[in-house]
Amino acid sequence: MTDPxxxxxxxxxxELREEHRDLDRMIDTLLAEPVVDELRLRRLKKRxxxxxxxxxxxxxxxxxxxxx
Length: 68
Known about the structure:
Blueprint: H1 3-32, H2 38-62
Helix pairs in contact: 1-2
C-alpha cells in the first residue's frame, strides 16, 4: 500500500473517530435530559455502532493481519 493511500485511510479513521466521540457526547447529553427521546437515542446508538464497524474495517485495511 502506498504512503498517500495509507495517509488517506488514517485521515478517514481520524474523521470517523471524531464523529464517534461527538455521538458519544450527544448520547450522554440526551441521557441527561429528564425525558429521553428513545427513538433519537436508538438512532444515535445505531450510527455510533456503524461508525465503530467502519473504523475497525478501515483499521484492518490499514494494518492487515499477515501470518508470519
